[in-house]
């Protein structure tokens, strides 16, 4: 009976599996093949070479990759530090207020990311909203904080805030209150409870939230363009330029392949360390 159910499940999932293979793996295969084509060709009917990877090293494209990964890592750490107290409140303290807070955070996703970032440009720019208030109340202005790396990281934190908050709240909700109370009764300090109970037991939510935030931030381009004024060129911007203005599909494919391999490796490693059954509530 169990073998029959497994076969029926496999046959039922086969059509959707084929669709996923064609729609997800096939484009990745095309990218991988273009990555080993000669420079500035638009067909796969060429002798493979690795000139695109040599160009990445010789022309400094790797710097864009390092900037993107570095800013993504910093923003992920900041998101965790900011979201942990709020997620803990949502999971353990706020009760009915959690629904209101969830709706408020989710509603920000209904507005385009670019529109929200341009709103910050109008707020922070020279002569913008904040400086107008400063001049009105204090009689002096300030230099605009736009167009530098910190404001790009601020944009990443602002945009990807929900993607860290909700997995963290889910992870923290998996921590049994009895375990925390037992540790407190045995004399454990709050910091020890945090390090030895809260963080380890909430690890699935931490890993999922960190992966989501890091992956999205590493591939982000709007923050560096709108808030940073391209003071830093993100890897996604180089990929877009190679595929469009540069008309160099092999270079864009090689850059994409490197980014996919790095992020995919981190994602596979992180997911392998997560108990997905516990997150989905399938364990009893």
For the record, the CATH class of the largest domain is Mainly Alpha
Count of alpha/pi helices: 15
Number of domains: 2
Shape: globular
CATH architecture of the largest domain: Orthogonal Bundle
Descriptive keywords:
74% helix, 15 helices, 2 domains, MetI-like fold, globular, 284 residues, mainly alpha, single chain
Q: Can I get a quick summary?
A:
The protein has helices spanning 2-35, 51-58, 61-93, 97-107, 113-124, 129-138, 149-159, 161-173, 177-185, 190-201, 203-218, 222-226, 235-243, 249-272, 276-279.
Descriptive overview:
- The protein is mainly α and 284 residues long.
- The protein has 2 domains: 35 residues, no CATH class; 229 residues, MetI-like fold, CATH 1.10.3720.
- α9 packs antiparallel against α10 and α13 runs antiparallel to α14.
- The radius of gyration is 23 Å and the shape is globular.
- The model has no long low-confidence stretch (mean pLDDT 84).
Show the helix and strand layout.
Layout: H1 2-35, H2 51-58, H3 61-93, H4 97-107, H5 113-124, H6 129-138, H7 149-159, H8 161-173, H9 177-185, H10 190-201, H11 203-218, H12 222-226, H13 235-243, H14 249-272, H15 276-279
């Amino acid at each position: 009976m169990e073998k029959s159910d497994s076969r029926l499940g496999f046959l039922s999932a086969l059509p959707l599996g084929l669709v996923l293979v064609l729609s997800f793996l096939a484009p990745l295969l095309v990218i991988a093949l273009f990555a080993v084509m000669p420079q500035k060709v638009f067909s796969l009917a060429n002798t493979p070479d690795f000139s695109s990877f040599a160009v990445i090293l010789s022309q400094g494209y790797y710097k864009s990759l390092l900037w993107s990964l570095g800013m993504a890592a910093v923003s992920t750490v900041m998101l965790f530090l900011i979201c942990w107290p709020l997620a803990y409140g949502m999971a353990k303290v706020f009760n009915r207020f959690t629904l209101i807070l969830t709706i408020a955070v989710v509603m920000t996703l209904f507005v385009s990311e670019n529109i929200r970032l341009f709103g910050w440009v109008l707020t922070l720019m020279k002569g913008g909203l904040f400086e107008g208030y400063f001049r009105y109340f204090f009689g002096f202005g300030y230099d605009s904080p736009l167009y530098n790396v910190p404001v790009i990281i601020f944009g990443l934190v602002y945009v990807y805030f929900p993607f860290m908050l909700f997995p963290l709240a889910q992870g923290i909700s998996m921590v049994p209150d009895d375990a925390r109370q037992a540790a407190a009764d045995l004399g454990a300090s709050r910091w020890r409870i945090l390090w030895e109970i809260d963080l380890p037991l909430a690890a699935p939510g931490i890993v999922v939230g960190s992966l989501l935030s890091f992956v999205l931030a590493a591939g982000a381009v709007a923050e560096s363009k709108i808030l940073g004024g391209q003071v830093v060129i993100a890897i996604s911007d180089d990929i877009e330029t190679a595929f469009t203005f540069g008309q160099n599909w092999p270079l864009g494919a090689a850059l994409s392949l490197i980014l996919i391999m790095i992020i995919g490796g981190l994602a596979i490693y992180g997911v392998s360390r997560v108990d997905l059954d516990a997150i989905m509530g399938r364990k009893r």
